[in-house]
């Protein structure tokens, strides 16, 4: 599908419809990929490059006490042209001199900044330090005049790794040919901030003493992540942990691609068979990642539905990118209750699988370990563990290509165990409770698909010693998603595509204990709609409009942003980082609720 010699006077969008099998169109309509943009032959030299961005809370050093920095170090500078199937770009890592300067680390930020020009797909990439993943991200799609973007992630929790020599690796599998010309150039920089005076007492858990990667080792010709290709595929790594560990948290990175890029839209297999839709990815619309230690379920991840920069209608994500697409969320599973089984100095098997998976899920994890500095041996035992199976229900009703599929699922995981160290005998309970509702409606002979999904994930931690409660924390995440895609009847070789996406992250966290009280509330929502008129494989016109509202209120500060774009142009952009009343349309009242919440928490303790 070479770009045709279209009338050069009109600003034509060239769109390559990657998956346009006519019978498969119903389910695959939104899988269109944006691979070319304005008539690329003659970029307008006076147009500046576009800056893409993901709306997020700016990363700042913790409040209280003077902070110096940043002390910035370029870790790696890479060019990603024909990199698909090639070894990752690597660079030796030496801890920056300022890190051994005696100051206590207040904040570490990893910054990826990149540019690209031409035409290119969205590409997934990962950044690893000594095998531990520090960033999972998706590239922005370039324009003929070039684009720029940067992503920052707080990497303070990897302090133990940052202090040791190692190797930085970046895998970004890109392909270059006559059509896809975009080469990505990127710089990876580490910014360090230090407490200028003695640091204030910690408000949150201190970083782990040791981080053990659960990933694939170099040399490789792709990413250090495991690739999970089907529902029975379990990828694992055997490793032993120090025998003086007293706390362990598994941090899991997840991204889904190819047949499962839009897993929440996949119809059940009986729909595909009945309609002869070979080539349409199926297995239904439910997925979850299961983490196992020695075969036993220790926790799950019900992932946020990240939409990459080429997803649904690529015009929606320019220049405001989809939530989580530049900085994919990672998910924590506290496995401290299981430590009793892992303290024998022997190797244990850490494995990951994906329920109902289709090719391909990229998964790996970092095991954060806290060590007893006053003893070389801790002991422990698992007291109880309840990982009941998945409760999954699918109701499907259809006639031909039209119908409805309603899927619901639940899971609960809970474990309690004690660990005896020089800090005492501490009992930890970690629990997760998930629920999921998904409805998929196909109408108009399968040309309209409407997905309405809610994922609800609660997790909690309760830590006590023989005399008092040390920590009680809860996190509640809700991921709503509404997705409409509709294609008009084809008239000749022309049709139009309409899409609407509304999705977001609502998250509340509370914790109390020895370190004090912490509360945060995040509401991050995007609403995007777009149209495209397609003639042959050429989009002769199109429109993308996106509106995002981000509201964070917490004991560690506030951030508000309300931003909207249309066709690359920002319509308005308001932001505020004060916690003052009025700035958040009433949400500052939530801060006032704090004493009440604190009371509630204390009651629970
Ligand atoms: C519905 O779609 C199928 C497959 O694309 C096609 O064969 C059929 O003719 C369509 N039916 C109607 C009523 O448009
Ligand atoms: C090139 O871009 C400049 C700046 O955006 C604009 O003023 C000018 O009209 C553009 N020229 C063409 C031929 O599109
Ligand atoms: C990377 O850093 C070099 C040197 O500072 C700079 O010239 C280049 O523009 C940077 N590239 C990107 C993509 O930020
Ligand atoms: C699942 O994937 C694994 C790993 O690629 C492969 O060995 C196995 O044969 C696959 N199973 C099925 C049923 O396709
Ligand atoms: C599917 O294919 C089979 C065998 O080719 C055929 O008998 C059946 O009518 C087809 N069904 C539909 C809905 O096209
Ligand atoms: C999506 O489903 C939820 C719960 O079933 C419902 O409350 C909501 O109105 C639905 N949203 C849309 C846009 O249909
Ligand atoms: C948005 O851009 C497309 C493609 O250049 C164009 O067809 C459309 O008219 C633009 N719409 C607006 C409102 O600017």
UniProtKB/TrEMBL annotation:
Signal peptide location: 1-25
Peptide N-acetyl-beta-D-glucosaminyl asparaginase amidase A N-terminal domain span: 68-385
Keyword annotations of the record: Signal
Classification via Pfam families: PNGase_A_C, PNGaseA
This protein's name: Peptide N-acetyl-beta-D-glucosaminyl asparaginase amidase A N-terminal domain-containing protein
Native source species: Digitaria exilis
Phylogenetic classification of the source organism: Eukaryota, Viridiplantae, Streptophyta, Embryophyta, Tracheophyta
